[in-house]
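Course assignment 3, question 2. Fill in each field.
Student: A.L.
Task: Predict the tertiary structure for the chain below.
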Amino acid sequence: MIDIKNMSYHLTIKDLPENLRPRERLIKYGAKSLSDAELLAIIIRTGSRHDTAIGLAQKLLKGSYGSEGLRFLVDASFEELSKITGIGKAKAAQIKASIELGRRLSALTTVERNVIKSPKDVKELLMEEMRYLDREHFRALLLNIKNQVISVEDISVGSLNSSIVHPREIFKTAIRRSCASIILVHNHPSGDPTPSQEDIEATKRLLEGGRILGIDVLDHVIIGDGRYVSLKEKGLI
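Answer field:
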């Protein structure tokens, strides 16, 4: 005899009305109409023994596993994700692959034909990519005579609280790409973009190097978590 009282019922997305299923909603209304949890549910495809894919996605985004929303998915390692109940190696791989594709697409589409008119343009170009990095990354925006972005060059990666950059690494790339000017950019993993004295002194040395080579260093923008500082706007260079 089957003990119905002790049977567990596992709800799946297929059990939901069609107008509540993420994939069907995406097809009908477009990806922009979906919440973060619904988009994540499509990526992970299936839920766990106790949750639908949507329920599992909501728990991931709402801190049920010590997570911090989308930022957690960016910061978490493959190993950390794969150990979460209901995720495992397959779903962890799907999540990390999706994030990396988004990062590459962002880098590809934002660089094309961008014109830098202000530090805010630099922020729009690189904030989302650089705000979550756990090391200082030093980059240079290479610009043509019309201030259009030729490329964004990775110059160096530092430790948790410092980056090592040498003028020759910046200017050899700038010379090779025949750029007219450059904008320096680096992030502060602490989230606070306030420039250090070392940042200011290093920038002044790079400005002098640019003057000698005939390549203008227009600004140095420091990226924090949702905030940025332009050394030029602050009158520090």
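Instructor remarks: Residues 195 and 234 are 10 Å apart (CA to CA). The mean pLDDT is 83.
Grade: pending
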